[in-house]
Amino acid sequence: MQQLSVAGIYVVQTFFGLYMIAVILRFLLQLARADFYNPVSQFVVKITSPVLNPLRRIIPGFGGIDMSSIVLLLTLQVAQLAILILLMGYPLPGVVDLLTWSVVGIFGLILNFYFFVILIQIILSWVAPHNHSPVVGLLYQISEPLMGPARRILPTMGGIDFSPMVVIMGIQLVKILVLQSLVQALGVPHQLLFGL
Predict the structure, then answer these.
(1) Low-confidence residues of the chain, pLDDT below 70?
(2) For the chain, what is the largest distance between any 2 Cα atoms, rounded to a whole number of angstroms?
(3) Is residue 139 within 8 Å of residue 156, measured between CB atoms?
């Protein structure tokens, strides 16, 4: 029985995690004003549109921010947490706890997403520095809101760009100082927040 519960937790985390990453990617593509004709962008639009388009009719954007993506992310995170809590055999917490835990989970997921996007960029710059694939272009467009200010603070020295390392360190510090403090203060069970 315990193996079934662990398998169920794995399936739930994988399914919800992948779809939430797609929604985050769609949200960040809009924020970064990335190329929506890119094949990766088109794929993300196709898999998120069936859920986002009906939501957009109900929830308008605000100041250029796609509020429907945020509502969808929050809904997915709440649903994932509720299912995981039930699979682990715990009673469901109150709505406020579930919502605050979900916000912390989304914040952590976005930090992890940026961490891996920048890490992939670093690795690609070593193994394939002149790669012009659609994926690489999209990674650079998505990370530019973080990388641009870092490059202005720390310009290239001797042909080496240290800004990715600074951004990765900043992300890790935010995870240690802010995210972990929030997790402890709110009493979020660690096993519920995948990858934090």
Answers:
(1) 1, 129, 131, 189-196
(2) 59
(3) no
Tokens of 165: 């390392």
Question: Is the CB of residue 92 less than 8 Å from the CB of residue 192?
Answer: no
Tokens linked to 9: 């937790």
Query: So what's the pLDDT on residue 63?
Result: 78
Distance CA 108, CA 171 (A): 10
User: Can you say how many angstroms the Cα of residue 186 is from the centroid of all Cα atoms in its chain?
Assistant: 21
- Token readout for 94 is 């109150």
Question: Could you tell me where the beta strands, DSSP code E, fall in the chain?
Answer: none
Calculated CA dihedral for residues 63, 65, 66, 69, nearest 10 degrees: -140
| Chain length of the chain | 196
* Structure confidence by residue, pLDDT tens digits, 79-135: 999 998 888 888 888 899 889 888 988 999 999 999 999 998 888 877 776 767 777
CA–centroid distance for 122 within its chain: 19
